[in-house]
């Protein structure tokens, strides 16, 4: 099978069939009709075999995750996802692998109403790069740079489950049978908080998604907004599965430094907290206030109730 047959077979009709795509896969470039009065939001993520996943991981889960991590970035910007491009480097043509991988992309792209509109296919060590594009009403994109002193800091969902799921998959941690599937799913099939991200457009001062762990990720908001923060570890939202599977210190460490939860972190000024509460009820996503933005630029203070909480982070940096 040549490159063109491969593209035609696995990547020519992936995701939703959107009416704003004039020309999709098959030409030199894709042509899309961009909606008036909107800004285009663009984001890219790469997953490399041996770094982000293992060569023998379920290809359907990889396809799902590749789409989700990109859509999660769009969600964090308050954007509505629309179009995807895929740059694929493969060591060989393996039809079983390709059909499962493309199925994972297809079902996830369809779920978020995105269409795959193009890409590139090359031979080499297994590497998956996706670019996602979305739309946001002009000037309404959420950023990391808008946090203000006094803002309340919120996170969606629960933290640390994906990191526990990774340990579980690697055989480094045991969890009871009751929680096994939930924890593994949170790592292998994460979701992106798309509807909530869009709903936060007129409420949050700043937002980002949590891919590398709260402790490291929040520093990006602090740096770009030139503010500080305090967080109460007792307020971190932990799933019952996580609490049942770890002692307190381990659970906090996973919630603070575990990656790949793809929850949203955002800050809300005092006078928008009421709107937030009203807004949240129909979204079915739990949101928890974990702390506040302070004026001490760059400083992140952890507390446990009234006491200081001492913590040595173990984040992951590619070039550290
Ligand atoms: P060109 O040589 O003009 O760059 P290619 O031969 O690389 O074009 O690609 C042919 C068509 O297939 C283009 O529309 C391209 O966007 C699309 N394409 C290539 N690889 C992929 C892929 N992995 N997923 C989706 N579309 C792809
Ligand atoms: Mg060309």
In words, what does this structure look like?
- Helices cover 33% and strands 25% of the residues.
- The chain has 320 residues and is an alpha+beta fold.
- The strands form three sheets. Strands 8-10-7-11-9-12-13 form a seven-stranded mixed β-sheet.
- The protein starts with a helix and ends in a 12-residue tail after the last strand.
- The relative contact order is 0.16.
Give a short overview:
By secondary structure, the chain is α+β, with helices and mostly antiparallel strands.
Question: What is the secondary structure topology, with strand pairs?
Answer:
Blueprint: H1 3-11, E1 21-23, E2 31-32, E3 38-48, H2 59-76, E4 80-90, H3 95-111, E5 115-123, E6 127-137, E7 152-156, H4 161-169, H5 177-188, H6 194-199, E8 206-209, H7 214-225, E9 228-232, H8 240-245, H9 248-257, E10 264-268, H10 273-280, E11 287-294, E12 300-304, E13 307-308
Parallel strand pairs: 4-5, 9-12
Antiparallel strand pairs: 1-2, 3-6, 4-6, 7-10, 7-11, 8-10, 9-11, 12-13
Helix pairs in contact: 2-3, 4-5
Bound molecules: adenosine-5'-diphosphate and magnesium ion (MG).
The site of adenosine-5'-diphosphate (ADP) has 13 residues, from helix 1, strand 4 and strand 5.
């Amino acid at each position: 099978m040549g490159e063109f047959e491969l593209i035609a077979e696995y990547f020519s009709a992936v995701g939703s069939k959107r009416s704003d795509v004039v020309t999709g896969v098959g030409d030199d470039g894709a042509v899309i009709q961009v909606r008036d009065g909107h800004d285009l939001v663009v984001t890219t993520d790469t997953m490399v075999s041996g770094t982000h996943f293992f060569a023998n991981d379920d290809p359907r889960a990889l396809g799902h995750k590749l789409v989700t991590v990109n859509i999660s970035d769009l969600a964090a910007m308050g954007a509505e996802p629309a179009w995807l491009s895929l740059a694929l480097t493969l060591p060989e043509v393996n039809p079983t692998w390709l059909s499962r991988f493309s199925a994972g992309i297809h079902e996830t792209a369809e779920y978020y109403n995105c269409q795959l509109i193009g890409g590139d296919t090359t031979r080499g060590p297994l590497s998956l790069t996706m670019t996602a594009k979305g739309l946001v009403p002009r000037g309404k994109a959420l950023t990391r740079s808008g946090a203000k002193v006094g803002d309340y800091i919120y996170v969606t969902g629960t933290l640390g489950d994906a990191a526990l799921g990774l340990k579980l998959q690697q055989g480094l941690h045991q969890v009871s049978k009751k929680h096994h599937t939930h924890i593994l799913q949170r790592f292998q099939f994460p979701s992106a908080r798309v509807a909530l991200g869009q709903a936060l457009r007129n409420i949050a001062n700043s937002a980002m998604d949590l891919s590398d762990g709260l402790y490291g990720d929040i520093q990006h908001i602090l740096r770009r907004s030139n503010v500080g923060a305090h967080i109460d570890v007792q307020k971190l939202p932990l799933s019952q599965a996580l609490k049942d599977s770890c002692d307190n210190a381990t659970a906090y460490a996973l919630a603070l430094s575990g990656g790949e939860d793809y929850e949203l972190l955002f800050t809300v000024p005092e006078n928008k907290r009421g709107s937030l509460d009203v807004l949240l009820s129909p979204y079915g996503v739990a949101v928890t206030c974990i702390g506040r933005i302070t004026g001490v630029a760059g400083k992140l203070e952890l507390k446990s109730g009234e006491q200081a909480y001492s913590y040595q982070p173990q984040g992951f940096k590619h070039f550290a």
